[in-house]
Recover the amino acids of this structure.
């Protein structure tokens, strides 16, 4: 599926995101799928996974471009790269960065979900359809990977969803 990576960000950031994505040297051939979110009335198309062709270096990019690049790295095929990027993205707290964080709640790497849970007081919830999809993914990954390891009430994904619901 072909996508223009800068479409993962609001139109006001498209020129900045094009520079940031270019600095990452992402392979456009690797995008397996994308999901859509509504950010301040604008539909963004965020890739489910990306594959940086090299270890990213943020030489020659400004702070906002670096933040955009880190958001894209939360979609990396490498779980360690996703977690490292997330730890910095958690401090951005811009409307356009939040979907990148929320998407990680519905994934299978429990250590990443733990990081989101620890940062919860700083996050906001938006996009009801996207949130429902994320909830469905939490259930699915818990059932597939963690059902034997954690009772539903102890699984960090469900704890996080309960907290988000309490903040709403």
């Amino acid at each position: 599926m072909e996508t223009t990576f800068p479409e993962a960000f609001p139109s006001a950031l498209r020129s900045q995101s094009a520079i940031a994505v270019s600095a990452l040297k992402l392979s456009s051939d690797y995008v397996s799928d994308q999901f859509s979110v509504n950010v301040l009335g604008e539909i963004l198309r965020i890739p489910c996974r990306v594959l940086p062709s090299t270890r990213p270096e943020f030489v020659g990019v400004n702070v906002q471009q670096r933040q955009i690049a880190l958001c894209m790295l939360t979609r990396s095929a490498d779980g360690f790269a996703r977690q490292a990027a997330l730890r910095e993205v958690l401090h951005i707290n811009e409307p356009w960065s939040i979907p990148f964080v929320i998407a990680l709640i519905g994934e299978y790497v429990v250590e990443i979900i733990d990081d989101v849970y620890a940062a919860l007081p700083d996050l906001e919830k938006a996009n009801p359809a996207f949130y429902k999809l994320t909830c469905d993914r939490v259930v699915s990954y818990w059932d597939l990977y963690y059902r034997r390891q954690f009772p539903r009430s102890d699984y960090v994904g469900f704890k996080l969803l309960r907290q988000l619901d309490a903040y709403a």
In short: Helices lie at 14-24, 63-73, 79-89, 98-105, 110-118, 128-146, 156-167.
